[in-house]
Amino acid sequence: MIKQRILVVDDTSSNIKILHAILQNEFDVSAVVDGQECLDFLSSQPVPDLILLDVMMPGMNGYEVCRRLKQNQATKDIPVIFVTAMGEVEDETHGLELGAVDYITKPIRPPIVLARVKSHLLIKNQHDQLKKSISIMEHDSEMMQQKADLGIQAGGLAHDINNILAACLFIEFLPEHLPESIPEKTLVQEDADSILRSLQLGCEICQGYTSYLRDIGSQAKAQPVLPLLQPIDMYSRQFKGKTIKNYSENLPLLFCKGYQIKRVLVNLFTNACQAIENQIQQVITIKVWSAEGEIFISMQDNGPGIPAEVVPDIFKERFTTRENGTGLGLFIVKEIIDSHHGTIKVETKEGKGTIFTLSLPESGE
Fold first, then answer.
1. Torsions phi, psi of 82, nearest 5?
2. Is 273 exposed, middle or buried (0-12, 13-18, 19+ CB in 10 A)?
3. Mean pLDDT over residues 40-47, rounded?
4. Could you point out which of 67, 115, 231, 254 has its C-alpha 20 to 30 Å from the C-alpha of 323?
């Protein structure tokens, strides 16, 4: 355990020896013999936790030393206890006005010295802890305000994008305006349907874009699981590798906010694509099954895996290992799954790939 540091300032060597003998077993004690040496010591050494300061010294007396200490930002919070002869007690008020916390009178009495030192160090520790707590509270308050501001901005952005996407939904009616004689009309219809599904999905995601910050959007409801995997179909068309799907039949309903679960799957699939972008053979395997009242969805890639030292941090806000990453993807995933009373687990081995597995309670309907 690191001992607290005490600086003794006294021009009498016998007083220094006595104070050192009293304090050395419990504290790290240093000593200087005049005021200027005290100031020089503090400018070059770690700041002590408490100073025992003689009042009457040649050159710069203890009062002047104390005044300078309290004017210095680096030393103003160090508790100062004056050590004074009986004849100087009438100056006690002056010393306290300068910022000292206490007086010890000479001749020095060991039990009094030890008790006063411990008492004021305890007060200092409590003061330091209070400042630290206040600092943490202020930081948390600032972060909450930043999140609130981010929520407002993201909500406005999502609203604007949603309007743009909604205006594009007219593509649903485009094939109707094409003559039946056009040979490619069937292909146009298929492409229009695909684009329409993508736009509808984009609208859903925009509606819930800031849901991890604020509880907004459509209400949770019991719904089938497989339609929630629609984003996988859309994104896998653009994926250059192989997508293997293993979906169980007769799955129970899932009570959830559908757009949020779709966001989770989009994030996990996108992460898997990024993880294997440098692999010669790129394979993503998605499995869906149910057991014991739970619905499981796993996303497995054959990438290089996640380094072991990184795994504990992957769900933390703003944590990322990608140069252009935001550190929000997996954080949002975890927030959404937690809000649905589910779990998300990761299994990874370097060189063997990674599996993310979601577990969500079935609706019971």
1. -75, 140
2. buried
3. 90
4. 231
